[in-house]
Amino acid sequence: MRRGDAPLASTVLTTACPRDCYSTCSLRVEIEDGQIRRIEPHPGNLATGKGVCIKGLAYVERSVSPNRLTVPLRRKDDGSFAPIGWDEALDQIASELTRISREWGPQAVLFFAGTGTKGLLNGVSMAFWRLFGGCTTTYGDLCWPAGLEATRLTLGDNLHNAPWDLANARLIVFWGKNAAETNVHQMDHLALALAAGAQVVVIDPRRTETAERAELLVQPRPGTDGALALGIAHVLIERSWIDRAFIAAHVRGLEPFAALARTWPPARAAEVSGVPVAVVERLAVMLGTIHPATIVPGFGMQRYTNSGQAMRAMLALLALTGQIGRPGAGWMYANLATQVFGPLRDPLDCYPPVAPDGVVRVAIPTARLGQGMQALTDPPLMAAWIERANPIPQHPETPAVVEAFRRLEFRVVVDELLTDTARTADIVLPAKNLFEQTDVIGAYWHPYLQLRQKLVEPPPHVRPETEVYWALAERLGFDPGAMEAHLVQPGGEEAWLRRRLEPWPEITLENLREGPVLAPGAAEVAFSDLRFPTPSGRIELWSDEARVRWGLDELPGYSEPVESQRSALAARFPLVLLTPNTKTRIHSQFGCLDTLRRMEPGPVLSMSPDDALVRGIAEGDEGRVFNDRGELRLPVRLDGGIRPGVVSVPNGFWLAEGAVNLLSLGRETDMGHGAAFHENLVEVEKAR
Amino acid sequence: MSRLAFTFDPVRCTGCEACRIACATENRLPVGLGWRRVHTLNPNRHPAVPVRHLSMACNHCEVPACLAACPAAAYTRDEATGAVLLDQTRCLGCGYCAWVCPYGAPQLDESNGVMSKCTFCAPRLAEGRGPACVACCPTGALGVGPRAQGMTPVYPGVFSDGLGPALSIAEPRLPVPPETTAPPTPAGAATVAARPVVPRRVTLATEWPLAVLTFMAAVLVAVTTAAVLGGPSVLPWWGVAGLGGGAMAVSAAHLGRKERAWRAGRQLRSSFLTLEILGFSGFLALAVAFLGMSSRAPMVGWAAVVIGALTLVAIDRLYQVPFHRGLPLHSALTLLAAVFLVGVLVPVPPVVVAAASVKLALIAWRQVRRPSTVARAAVEIVRIGVGLLVPMLGVLGVISLPNSVALGTALLGEALDRLGFYADFAPPSPEGEMRLAFSRALDLRH
Q1: Could A194 and B11 be called an inter-chain contact, meaning their C-beta atoms sit closer than 8 Å?
Q2: CB contact under 8 A, A57 and B192
Q3: Predicted ipTM of the assembly
Q4: pTM over 0.90
Q5: Vertex A206, ends B10 and A347: CA angle to 5°?
Q6: pLDDT digits (tens, 9 = 90+) for B192-231
Q7: What is the Cα–Cα distance from B354 to A145, expressed in whole angstroms?
Q8: Which of A40, A273, A439, A630 is at 20 to 30 A from B3, Cα to Cα?
Q9: Within a 13 Å sphere around the CA of B320, how many CA atoms are in the beta-carbon half?
């Protein structure tokens, strides 16, 4: 509050949370005296209207956090940072970019943007780099493309029923998804389903908070979900719990798939996955007879070198039983109904271009960022511009990423905080927060388009990226006409957004200001017309594209993960390290806020009491978790619900706290160019 | 508007603490103050027990313990909503309400020395908005509804009767935990069966001023009674005045707002703390008058004895907070201590023997119910040996002992016992009840 001023009348405005999160909530924000006073849910969003998660509520603290960067910084020789003015910062950036581009070409500059914040205006960044003459960038994605591709190959597109439709399901299988912590608003819909008599199964090596609502927790060996699915398919087909009419009309490849499934009797699935035969059969009984059935797969379980194929096998279970295209049924993985603004949807949008135009060199797999950056020649990378991302703790193989950045001559990082990545930068530019620039955002769970409104002025020396790019473009002498056409001048956001919304007259900024608006073409029930945009027009259990594009089997066969507990490496490192997300953070964001820090002050190593017992480790001891790639020393927490042989450390903590990617290896998933983080064998011993 | 109650659905609650944060934001709470707290049963996921949470702020009880106990009469009830409200301008910061509330609702705000607690978001209710915690709960676990008569929730962490908390809990019975395919071995499960450590709300470090006051009260009542009974006058009137006044001044150090100490006499009808303060003040006045007069009027003396005894009864009752599992009988009860000391002072051998026997029995019972650490056991042995046996044997003439030594050892023993009382005094808490529920669910002895 500014002292001495009469308080301004408090106003309540609508906005939405742009984090990389399923919920992507609609919010009602109360402003008092130019500051955020209260954050409450917007009831117009039927998916998220019940409430606000702890991170959303923590925005009140985040918007005034003393850790927030408010001026540009330059790194000095001793590694500390000094504040500088914008002119100085932009002059230096322009000068360095010009020099490097002249000497090496524009592709010597890496432009890397992560998913730290959503919004249509993000697209302006790449428009800048194209006007610059080009750049180098990455393909693939850390998060979800194996599953996206598996779904795309099978159903043709990533769409699912509206989130609130879950209340209509009578069988719900959370397969590697911990909605209670990572999509808390889904728990409301789950509660309605439970009240109506739905049965719930959780498949997860850990007994998560979500599992407390399940009657059955199936804990397979990590990375063996495909084998489990094939064992279930075997029983479904053998007992004829399949919808032959549906298959005949809408599924391609039953015969060869059935032949594959025949080779997976429950005993074999049990041997591979560690799930008892009786439970494999019980899962088949449930999926075969309790309808409508919804499978809710998570992202964690598709971060292996075999998980694309695994997800195809899991999805096949719904295809066999006709659980696609009807209320209460389906595959709730990702719903891209709001991706209407570009020619391509994910995952195609993040693959290397079919016909590169020579302007942007799309050459680095995200899963192997460090190695990819170091390996480039002709031209090699000389500079980097990083925005909306914190790759050093978040990408696999932190040391490789650190080394790749160290080799550059010039780095610019745009961020709200001085993250591990920002600390390597030559110039750090202070980023806006979600309340400080208007933008339109989509989602990947609910089908709403939302306005992320400007509610407060940014601090005096903070500029949104679009303004920074405009100022930089002026310094670099870009053609003014091109700037008008492709960039956004300060204050021009609304005009730009209106142009993007033109194709849909029913969607206006005015509508969006009131609350969330359903995306054009969004349907309550996905694929209700049973038309699938696959090559055959059917659900494809047999996919030629799997072979052509990825070199994989046309059928979703099972193979062990590359770094599997049955490989030779496991003799030295017998434990699988999972690195899930928890409710107090979105990856590396939110961790510095007091109100959330007190709930999770640092990373903890969760392990089964059996694994701890044989290693002489007690609750609260310091454990050393290590493999050939690195080590972490963390307090140990005994978890009576985690599968023996599996340990877990949450990701997102910074280097000083304990960053899990010191232990991971950069591998791509079998399809989609995703990152196989969870393929990570370690050993744990009591720290001396 | 009918009177309101909180509703809580444990099936929906994921323990996310959005309610805590919404409350803290709404009420601009400093870090460290949590009007609403979330407690978790079985956080280490023992396979035989479900994982369940409980979100509680203030239960705005039908029979609020805080309101009755507050010596400054700082609590009132808002008739419209049923909310129990604290007037911070009247609060002394004595913390007694925190002791008598088994839900941990009133908390000390260190920044201003007074207590604070959930207000049921009275300003929001007036606008028809609902409390902040309810508005923000993302799973719909928290709600607000009309208060029903005879509502007694049964759930881990909630004390089920007596205070009438305005809290309704859906599905209160603990469910069967999920059937799992990879449970730990029995040996492994045993290591997560340890009962969680419950943080102590009361420690000697925080309560030493009260130890001083209560010990001194027992001693001064005994000394005065001995004088009235014709025994030796161990202290002159100014000694009694000085020690008594000094003890009261020291106990005022316990208050968050020391300058408001004079307000402690306001809740005569229901607060044992008020009775303690008024009683002790009255006793001191009468005792000083009696001891100071050259002609010691027996009526004044007996009045002092009676008021003094009633004061000690009030002190002992004060510590019998609702649902306390250890009391009411403890060897360090001030009345018992005073009787023992009178026996040593006058002396009255049968009284000494009787009182010492009762004390020994209570100490033994205490050890049986909850065996103590080696350090504490050593203190107890010294206390018994030096503080009980030596003076008893001296008074009985079994050993030859100057009266001063008998008195000195008795006082030492009583002081040790009184200090030990604060280690044993454990006002109940939701965390303690959760621990108990966990043990019960595991079928362990508690």
Answers
A1: yes
A2: no
A3: 0.95
A4: yes
A5: 100
A6: 988 777 888 888 888 999 999 999 999 999 999 999 998 8
A7: 82
A8: A40
A9: 13
